[in-house]
Amino acid sequence: MAEMQIGLIGLGTMGAMLAMNIADHGFSVAVYNRTISKTDAFIKDAGTLALKLKACKDLTALVAAIERPRNIILMVPAGEAVDQQIAQLLPLLEPDDMIIDAGNANFHDTQRRAADMQKAGRPYLGIGVSGGAEGARFGPSIMGGGNKKDWDRVAHILSAISAKYDGIPCATWMGDGGAGHFVKTVHNGIEYADMQLIAESYGVMRDGMGMDAAACGAVFDGWNQGLLKSYLIEISARVSQATDPKTGRPVLDIILDRAGQKGTGRWTVIESQMLGSPVPVIEAAVGARNMSAERDLRLAGAAVFDVPERAISTDELTHDDLEQALIAGKIMCYAQGFELLAKAGNNYGWTLPMPEIAEVWREGCIIRSAMLNDMSAALRQDPKRNLVLAPLFQNLVAANLPGLRKTTLAAQRACLPVPALSAALAYFDTLTTERTTANMLQAQRDYFGAHSFERIDAEGAHHGPWHGQHLNG
Ligand code: 6PG
Fold first, then answer.
1. Where does the pLDDT of residue 308 fall: very low under 50, low under 70, confident under 90, or very high at 90 and above?
2. Contact of 455 with 436, CB cutoff 8 Å
């Protein structure tokens, strides 16, 4: 009997948690997973929630179990698996039935799929879901994309299962097609940068100040009481204080310094390059992950060159300076992320709801933090203005910049790599430079390629005196 309110395909960790979350909010869910044993184990683990779940052994059974018009969530790995799943599902569906891709899709794929579905007159949503397994289970942040009327059809379910900030659901429609997945991509780019900034502050404490992991954790705990209050600082404190049961050593000390990545941070950087929207802090973070993977190269480098002792004294740098550096770095990174969102909106024809993006990130997602509330207030005043220049942030930037400068100086003097913090400082210094050195670039371009340049004292395209000489040899 077609009695279940929604369907869900893919019972990996995120899919299973999301299905339980939906059931927990009183909605009945038909579930299907390619490997049947996984479905059985899932139902067994669901306890009393199993009353709201129906395990389906194949797609036909799943489709038959859902009430019309059907809403079916896909939680399968991003990429080809999504296309394959859609191709298998479509012949079984009726025209009004809707597929909702809730995986970490590349937004270009979502744009393509949404356009194909639109042509076929079928509803389709691509939604970004953030918050890891715990978020999926107890309240993620949800960034929706697709036709607004299709979003409205399931908004009550998505809002119910989402995280709440002061009672406000963290589930928002961002725009047509791939808008939701684009916002999720930028979320992840910021996630990479936020994590890298914290990791660099940990490096300054560990290698520069000679602090052990627990002491670093205590500092993070302290920062989590102030402006930096956020999920990522909180978990950084927790992981710093954890002990490895096998060796009794701090867990951090036994983890290999080679970071993985599924690629969404890289997508942010690629898109920023395509749109000409600078995100140097995010680029530095993605680059740092790539460098971390080059372990053999790093070992070779460490063996070839004498690196001086990497000590930083407390006279040179304090924990307060470091906290300031993180605050300033964080503002730069978010300013870049929101600039990218604004440019993408113009390019793809979305009216991205800038303050609401900050709001949907206030709870449930990995980058949730106290500062996002102020960011949403600043974006409400002017959604187009760079956050660094927003009256709400100007004073904060000015107050915390000395710490950022001191930290990068001290780290560089001590040969400690702080690529994201340095990129944040360079971004600020560029942002506040009236006359940069790009006049030199323009002169060089004109010299070797006759690309022309603009003059400061006249309109139009001009060439240098070298141009004729160059061409005449
Ligand atoms: C989230 C996270 C999540 C992310 C994974 C893997 O918002 O819940 O962003 O979606 O994709 O944690 O990220 P990596 O790229 O670091 O593997």
1. confident
2. no
